[in-house]
Amino acid sequence: MKPAKRSPLQGGPLAYAVLGVATLLAVFPFYWTLVAASRSNSELSAATPALTPGPNLFHNLGEALQQAAIGTALLNSLLVSSVVTAGVVLSSTLAGFAFAKLRFRGRGLLLAVTVGTMMIPPQLGVIPLFMVIVKLDLQNKLPAVVLPSLVSAFGVFFMRQFLLQALPDELIEAGRVDGASLLRIFRSIVLPVARPGMAVLGMLTFMATWNDFFWPIVALSSQNPTVQVALKSLGQGYVPDQSIVMAGTLLGTLPVLVVFALLGRQIVGGIMQGAVKG
Amino acid sequence: MAISSARLPAVASAGPRPRRAGRLAPYGFVAPFFVLFAAFGLFPLLYTAYVSLHRVELQTADRMDWLGLQNYTRLLEDPFFWNALRNTFTIGVLSTVPQLLMALGLAHLLNYRLRGRTFFRVAMLMPYATSVAAATLVFAQLFGRDYGLINWALGSVGLDPVDWQADTWASQFGVSAIVTWRWTGYNALIYLAGMQAIPADLYESAAVDGASRWQQFRHITVPGLRPTIVFTVVVSTIGATQLFGEPLLYEGNSGGGISHQYQTLGLYMYEQGWSFFHLGRAAAVAWVMFLLIVVLALVNAAVAARRNRTDR
After folding, report:
1. How many CB atoms are located within 10 Å of the residue A149 CB?
2. What are phi and psi of B66, to 5 degrees?
């Protein structure tokens, strides 16, 4: 479909007004986090709350970094999210290629199992998973969070769909005629074609891992947390200082927002590409 | 978009024929995924059922005593279980229904020819980039009883403050608002993708026939989107059934409020396992949640199938 023909509807003033209000509602909590993180606690509990940023931002950020191990948490989250992203993108591209373009016994069944488990809530496996982690003596250690997330059924399905459409069979056939091994074909033919899909999957995986909450709070303690676990203890502590809680929230959100500011357009495209269509 | 609409000929299922030496190679490609998937994905899924039939305590997770169905019967006798089930349902409806309706409306607007279209799309998706923890901490403050911005705004137009934490409906609304805020833009984009797959000539010929914009929306857009709508309903239902982080952090305790007024099943499971140390009983809750999801998915599918039949 050509972009120009996509919609015959011309937006009127009402469309702009409604979208403007929706944009405000979507963005306001971010703005307010910045406001609250740059004020003092007493200003936040005043009769008329502050609505513009104040002068305390760096003081509050420093406090937040000291409390609840936010500094460690940021490093931990960066490490966990990077390793998980690399693992998911690589394992998904390998398996996605095999499912999309190779013939082998049991392919249908294996793919069905993979896709089928996407519908099952992660909570269902959390208790045995926890018991496994305890047995491996990984409790409160980062591998406890990394290992179970290194592969993703969604990732395999995503890469399969992408390669099914993006990778012509003729290219692989040409590689075979030239006598290249399958691994060689993967490296020099599949990987270059797969790159846009890998990039989208990588961004989505990084964001999801950075934001993951349920499994990390089960597997990690507040001594060695990821950012989300640290935010939980910051919010639950006997520290009623809301401006510092918001400073911590800002620190935890900022990295993903930066990714989003740089690559927002591609992320939007990736989500729309992954959608089920009529 | 260009990639997905340019369909390749359906040769994928055939694929190039491998040579004899390469016959095992495909297994090598799927092995990294399946080894980890089996160990940390499939095995725990299946083993949960076994755990749920035993007494397993958090401190002595190695020891398992056979209980049969006792974890389940204890669950059914626990009023807090029924309370959590009810809350999961009401919060699920409060968050899912407005969310999807607003997403549908926004997608329709985003599908117009607009200046700054990309800006609007990215802005709508921004809440999706936040974590449950961050979003909940921010909203918990906005919904604060004494110093919250929302009560201040209500007061400035002469309305009484609402206790967004202690009151049952208000607190459930608060929790639902967090979910709605985070996911509306995401669903709007999913709908938008579906709308762009509807051929533009349908609208043009409808316009020629004198159909109003509302009629076009009702008779072209909504039917064309049906598979997408079913998809989002199923995904949101599953999400609502598992709701956990928002009620945990809304006030910061695993009870879901002083009188458990917004404790969900996900939170109840966490409380059983990691506050009361009953891993076996928590596993039973997990299985109940799973069965609930299966039932809801089947109901969704049945409703969708039936509507398809009556409409065509």
Report:
1. 23
2. -65, 130
Q: Is A110 on the interface with B (CB under 8 A)?
A: yes
The burial of A58, by beta-carbon neighbours within 10 Å (0-12 exposed, 13-18 middle, 19 or more buried), is given as: exposed
Q: Which residues of A touch B293 (CB under 8 A)?
A: 119-121
Is the CB of B3 less than 8 angstroms away from the CB of A271? no
Helix (H) or strand (E) holding A82: helix A70-101
Give the A window 149-168 contacts with B, CB below 8 Å.
150-151, 153, 156, 162, 164-166, 168
The CA distance from A36 to the nearest CA of chain B, in Å, is 9
**pLDDT for B125-142, tens place per residue?**
999 999 999 999 999 999
Q: Distance of CA B31 to CAs A96, A169, B24, B86, B179, Å?
A: 12, 23, 11, 43, 37
Lookup: tokens for B259 = 């009188």
Q: Give me the residues of A, 171-190, that contact B with CB < 8 A.
A: 172-173, 176, 181-183, 186
8 A C-beta contact, residue B180 and residue B103: no
Q: How far is A72 from chain B (nearest CA, A)?
A: 17
What's the average model confidence in pLDDT over B282-287? 95
The mean predicted confidence, pLDDT, of chain B is 88
Show residues of chain A in contact with B193, CB under 8 Å.
Answer: 271-273, 275, 277
Cβ-based burial of B299 (10 A; exposed 0-12, middle 13-18, buried ≥19): exposed
Identify the DSSP state of B16.
P
Residue bearing tokens 């995924």? B33
Element (DSSP H or E) covering residue B15: none
Lowest-pLDDT range of A266-275, B79-88, B102-111, B218-227: A266-275
